[in-house]
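note to self: dont lose this again. the chain is below, predicted strucutre after it. 197 aa total, dont forget to put it in the shared folder this time
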Amino acid sequence: MIATKKYYFINALLLLLAIVSFLGWYNYTGNPGNAKTTAKIDAFAIDIDGMQFDVLGQKQGELKSPKLLHFANDDSSLLTTPRLTLYSKDNKAPWSITSQTGKTFNGTEKVDLIDNVVIHQPTSAQNQDTTISTSLLHIFPKQQLANTDKSVTLVQSGVKITSIGMNAYLDQKHVTLLSQARGFYDPTKAQPTHSLS
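---
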């Protein structure tokens, strides 16, 4: 019985430490010029798995994160190692997007993913395996739009392209590279989208 109480006390202490660390990180990164402004946490959650549906009840997106802190003043949330999945209307393979940290705005109208951002769509009958990486990504889940003004690397079957800035229309599988785009093509690694029988 004493060991169980000790276990719960240690877990509670670790959770409190995590919340205090998150709040300190938010005040440092979110308000660098105004140390007197403090955001108030009104809720926190562990092991988040939230789903978003369109007006017809079809899956539109899913957000997973091991930890979330919510701020009531602007309906924003901070996330650790978030994983966002965006589903297309035409049954293409879904896009999976991961990063080290993230922040949502106005619920989930906008999601910023920060550090080691990786966008991936696996091979399906309609598309080749595609991976895009960057350091910062702004995502608008309802519009299935993602953009950044940071350095971007796009890798697809036999192709590697680097660029500064990108607009990605994920439901259309259309990516616009904004500047300084450079590409490399290796035909030995290229594979067809699907096989003919």
